[in-house]
Amino acid sequence: MVKICCLGAGYVGGPTMAVIARKCPSIEVVVVDISVARITAWNSDQLPIYEPGLDDVVKQCRGRNLFFSSDIEKHIAESDIIFVSVNTPTKTRGLGAGKAADLTYWESAARMIADVSKSDKIVVEKSTVPVKTAEAIEKILTHNGRGTNFQILSNPEFLAEGTAIQDLFNPDRVLIGGRETLEGRKAVQALKDVYAHWVPEDRILTTNLWSAELSKLAANAFLAQRISSVNAISALCEATGANVSEVAYAVGKDSRIGPKFLNASVGFGGSCFQKDILNLVYICECNGLPEIAHYWKQVVKINDYQKSRFVNRVISSMFNTVSGKKIAVLGFAFKKDTGDTRETPAIDVCKGLLGDKAKISIYDPQVTEDQIQRDLSVNKIDWDHPLHLQSMSPTAVKQVSVTWDAYEATKGAHGVCILTEWDEFKQLDYQRIYDSMQKPAFIFDGRNVVNVEKLRGIGFIVYSIGKPLDSWLKHMPAVV
Ligand code: UDX
Ligand code: UDX
Ligand code: ADP
Known about the structure:
The chain is of the alpha/beta class. It has two domains: 3-199, Rossmann fold (3-Layer(aba) Sandwich); 221-464, NAD(P)-binding Rossmann-like Domain (Rossmann fold, 3-Layer(aba) Sandwich), CATH 3.40.50.720. 44% of the residues lie in helices and 14% in strands. The protein has helices spanning 13-23, 36-42, 54-61, 72-78, 104-116, 133-144, 164-169, 182-195, 209-240, 244-252, 273-286, 290-317, 345-355, 369-377, 394-397, 406-410, 424-427, 430-436, 452-458, 471-474; strands at 3-7, 28-32, 66-69, 81-84, 121-125, 150-154, 174-178, 204-208, 326-330, 359-363, 380-381, 389-390, 400-403, 415-418, 442-445, 461-464. The strands form four sheets. It has a six-stranded parallel sheet with strand order 3-2-1-4-5-6, with helices on both faces. A six-stranded parallel sheet has the order 13-10-9-14-15-16, with helices on both faces. The protein starts with a strand and ends in a 6-residue tail after the last helix. Adenosine-5'-diphosphate binds next to helix 5.
């Protein structure tokens, strides 16, 4: 029986391993993590992450061929294939601060693997890492190992949060990069055999190590670029009277462009896009390609611009001040169907409003108050000026309250900002919300979820990203 061990029981490692276990009953899969609390949660009824369909898959396999454990060294030693799915945040200090990936967790994982391995291992890079990391890891393993053979593979994960289980069951492609040696090819085949349990062969792509590593960064950069492109057009739509939904639909009908991933928004978030692009930027800079670095940097800059444009729109619409006004924020997660708040645009929008002394009342169906308070009180480093800390005063954070109900959040508010596209925000009783709000009542829809005409009919002044402006907003000072 093949045994797989996965280091890192996070958003990627947990669901991916659960699906491998579900699809490969003949393989034993153990997920390990240095966080005992995480492992305890994976073994409980309250899984540490919210992901539609995940509970069912875990319930079907846990205790059968899927295990979660803190006994890291034992399971590493016993495994044939080791997936490494530890976190790779952006470096916050030192060389490359603000852009380069922090590989501390990766390096310590590799050293530990070298230390405890007594039999040959296939080590699979699952977390997104800079191109050529495999080479560095290979060196750590071979220089610290005890004569065992290590084959390194790059097998980047393309799942998106909120649809992780669907994506894993039915991936567009599985990508496996390996060394072009006999041993390397054997290792690629061994991993291919795992996926072949449920993924059609023509969707399993094999490449060299560097192509696989770079494909992941490139795919995320392309996806994020589409959003920054449509968001850039959204600003122009507001200025000209075009409608971004109509424009995106017309553009996406070109089969060379395609219809997906063209929703204008308050900005993209999530743990991957910004981090991976900045990583790409850093790699370009290190390889003497400043023009290419500059090109990709613009994708993140437009995203930052889109968030501050939204904040400016809110403030300028409400007579140029939100000081002391109650602003309801509906949605805090970086997208619907997840409780994840990493790099969510809501953090920057809330901080922007708090900077103008607003009182904020937040409702999100999946994000806890603790998480929101933590996110808003953490000082972020400015990626473009890494010595700069964007800090939030403790008094500003006190202006935040978190509710478990959209009606409670909006009661008595001067304005409502919709920052995540949760389906339930489409079904809210907006007449009831309008009746309970201060007048004039404003709605700023950062996700294009509401029916603008209907809400204007109720009496709201509505701003929706990239949509023709309300006559009210047209007469307010220009947003820059
Ligand atoms: C992304 C990639 O899609 C996935 O392949 C990769 O493995 C990890 O990074 P994820 O961050 O989970 O996945 O979610 P995704 O659906 O890509 O959304 C990222 C952000 O873009 C979200 O904030 C989302 O709201 C935003 N977005 C997405 C838009 O603003 N408009 C769109 O049209 C699509
Ligand atoms: C383009 C648009 O495709 C068309 O829809 C519009 O109406 C007019 O402009 P055209 O300029 O005739 O059409 O040719 P196109 O096939 O788009 O190629 C434009 C240039 O891009 C060419 O120099 C082509 O060689 C280059 N190209 C195209 C690439 O370098 N790589 C590609 O993948 C595709
Ligand atoms: P991702 O979104 O990439 O899955 P997460 O932050 O959700 O990232 O998960 C990464 C997990 O890896 C965390 O639970 C963290 O505790 C774990 N981790 C980090 N370093 C190690 C290590 N050396 N051994 C085992 N687990 C680790």
